[in-house]
């Protein structure tokens, strides 16, 4: 049995959706469990030519043999949850997607409070998805839970019980985080962060799995770095420079233009340390080095790319095991066998 966690190493949008799709489709875990804050996330999944943008349902849905669970630590917006069940209907998600009955619920009023708040929406640049106000209500112990609301009837479960039983029976579990290290309420660029810790330890706690049961922690980095919303950004470059390098980006949820910078080695080292990374997945290598677009074989990468990978491994002391050379699941170099 294995229980692996994947988390973002930057300010979110590292390409977790793509890496999760690849890992789940290939490794076929029995349970794929979503951790992280809630529907402030926007994961992109490209699979066999189709593109999906997801906020709540685990990105590993393409592996149709898995149960898809949302951990108790994650905020659930029933509107988004039910919309995505319809959206992904052809993957039979209605029969196999469940949220823990203890998930706190995002109500309309939370979204209104988020968007009307000068502090959250304007100063911090929140996604307006209601996560901050809902987590604040949860801390105040006034939030509703999934087990109490009609919209979630038929879609709740005891997630830690299922996950720990699966591990006891030698089955595999994959935990997908959302957001990224730099947005952690504890370790990120406070106050320009999200409403919760986003590191691997919290991802395990979100699902109800103890730290002793985790095998691998995969931290995802993009070959450059982006940030949406406000806050410090050590290696930021101008939009003109980003355009010249063809690395400009727009958000999945909000459509906002992402701020862009060059790879931040200091942030990567800290992120690997605090997450307890055992592996690194490096994405968007093709955007920085177009000659390696869709390359699937390590030996076909240019010397420049190999040097970049060696530098990351040398500085972080963590092996780069997944190299993503395009948005589609297939555009992946998998070096895990060489560990
Ligand atoms: P959050 O949960 O919101 O933090 O998002 P995420 O980490 O799932 O990333 P998101 O999908 O928001 O952004 C990553 C973008 O890069 C998406 O448009 C992906 O399709 C794209 N992408 C991911 N990997 C690659 C890659 O290797 N090459 C290229 N060209 N695009 C990629
Ligand atoms: P909130 O989580 O909506 O309160 O937003 C707080 C900060 O985190 C803002 O800067 C958002 O842009 C950022 N943020 C939250 N979720 C994500 C994500 O999934 N990707 C990228 N940035 C995010
Ligand atoms: Mg995103």
Give an overview of the whole structure.
Helix content is 29%, strand content 19%. It has 339 residues and is of the alpha/beta class. The protein has one domain (3-338): Adenylosuccinate Synthetase, Chain A, domain 1 (3-Layer(aba) Sandwich), CATH 3.40.440. The strands form 3 sheets. Strands 7-6-5-2-8-1-9-13-14-15 form a 10-stranded mixed sheet, sandwiched between helices. Strands 10-12-11 form a 3-stranded antiparallel sheet, with no helix packed on it. The two termini are 18 Å apart. The model has no long low-confidence stretch (mean pLDDT 97). Bound molecules: guanosine-5'-triphosphate, inosinic acid and magnesium ion.
Oligomer: single chain
Query: Span from first to last CA?
Result: 18 Å
- Strand residue percentage: 15-25%
Instruction: Supply the CATH class.
Output: Alpha Beta
* Helix proportion range: 25-40%
Fourth CATH level, the homologous superfamily: Adenylosuccinate Synthetase, subunit A, domain 1
Q: Give the strand line-up of the largest sheet.
A: 7-6-5-2-8-1-9-13-14-15
When the domains are counted, the total is 1
| Average pLDDT score | 97
Q: What spatial form do the alpha-carbon principal axes imply?
A: globular
> Spans of 5+ residues with little confidence (pLDDT < 50)?
none
Biggest sheet statistics: 10 strands, mixed
Question: What small molecules accompany the polymer chains?
Answer: guanosine-5'-triphosphate, inosinic acid, magnesium ion
The DSSP helix count reads 11
Total beta strands:
15
CATH fold assignment:
Adenylosuccinate Synthetase, Chain A, domain 1
Which CATH architecture? 3-Layer(aba) Sandwich
Structural class: alpha/beta
User: How large, in whole angstroms, is the Cα Rg?
Assistant: 19 Å
Helix-strand string: EHEEEEHEHHHEHEHEEHEEHEHHEE
């Amino acid at each position: 049995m294995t229980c692996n966690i994947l988390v973002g190493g930057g300010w979110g949008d590292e390409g977790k959706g793509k890496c999760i799709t690849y890992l789940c489709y290939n490794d076929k875990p029995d349970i794929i469990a979503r951790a992280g804050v809630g529907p402030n996330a926007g994961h992109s999944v490209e699979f066999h030519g189709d593109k999906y943008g997801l906020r709540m349902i685990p990105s590993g849905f393409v592996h149709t043999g898995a149960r898809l669970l949302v951990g108790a630590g994650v905020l659930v917006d029933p509107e988004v949850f039910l919309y995505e069940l319809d959206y992904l209907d052809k993957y039979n998600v209605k029969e196999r997607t469940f949220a823990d009955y203890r998930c706190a619920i995002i109500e309309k009023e939370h979204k209104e409070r988020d968007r009307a708040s000068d502090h959250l929406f304007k100063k911090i640049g929140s996604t307006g998805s209601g996560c901050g106000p809902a987590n604040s209500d949860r801390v105040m112990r006034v939030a509703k839970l999934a087990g109490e609301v009609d919209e979630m009837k038929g879609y709740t479960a005891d997630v830690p019980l299922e996950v720990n039983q699966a591990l006891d029976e030698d089955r595999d579990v994959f935990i997908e985080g959302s957001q990224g290290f730099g947005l952690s309420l504890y370790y990120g660029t406070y106050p320009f962060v999200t409403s919760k810790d986003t590191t691997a330890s919290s991802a395990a706690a979100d699902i109800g799995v103890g730290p002793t049961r985790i095998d691998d922690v995969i931290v995802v980095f993009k070959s450059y770095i982006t940030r949406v919303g406000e806050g410090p950004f050590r290696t930021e470059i101008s939009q003109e420079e980003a355009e010249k390098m063809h690395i400009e980006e727009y958000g999945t949820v909000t459509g906002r233009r992402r701020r862009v910078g060059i790879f931040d080695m200091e942030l990567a080292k800290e992120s690997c340390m605090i997450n307890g990374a055992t592996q690194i997945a490096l994405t968007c290598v093709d955007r920085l080095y177009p000659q390696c677009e869709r390359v699937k074989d390590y030996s076909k990468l240019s010397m420049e790319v190999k040097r970049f990978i060696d530098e990351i491994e040398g500085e972080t002391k963590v092996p780069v095991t997944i190299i993503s050379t395009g948005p589609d699941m297939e555009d992946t170099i998998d070096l895990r066998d060489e560990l």
